[in-house]
## 1
Amino acid sequence: MDELADLARGNARYRGKAIFELIDRAPADTAAAERLAELSEVPKLREDRVFHMVSMAWAAIIGLLVTEKPYERQLAYDAFAKLGPKDQENLLRYLRCGRIEEAHPPGV
């Protein structure tokens, strides 16, 4: 897990692949989910856009939500709470819900 987290933090070339590998592992691996929550706070991942407004940090949060598991969803709620107000507003609009707890996105 740590190697993937290090790639996501540092190497722009493999950043997305590392995040999405952690997302794939999160439903079965609590350590992967915890890394995603940590990575959602990294400033460069909040700025690195997958497409349009969707940042790598958003991808990490959405990946946690998709698990539909209580602990992982709580990690997502906590990570969401640490986003700036505009980022929170935009993410809720993207997820088409009024509150993060209402978000049930389809698989990433």
## 2
Amino acid sequence: MLLKCEAKQCTHNDNKGNCYAKVVNIRGERARITDQTLCSSFADERIDSVAEFAEEFNAARRKATTKSIKCGAHRCEYNKSSRCYADSIKVNHDTASCETFVIL
């Protein structure tokens, strides 16, 4: 269950596509297209207070997987009871949207 994150300057991203957030929250309750989804776990590493919080939040430094995802994109084919059941997902590098989103 692979989570590939390309979000630029996220404190959870090691810039090799690995996410180290303890929990990944994807928003998009009313989403009908990819751009209406958002990884709300994104924490801009350029903001010191956010980066400090994020470091505490993921102190174990374990790679996130699709099992780490809480999904609010209720119209997504891979969402079952607010969990992601895709074999892999990709987070967009510019917008932090879920590129795996497929509307039902």
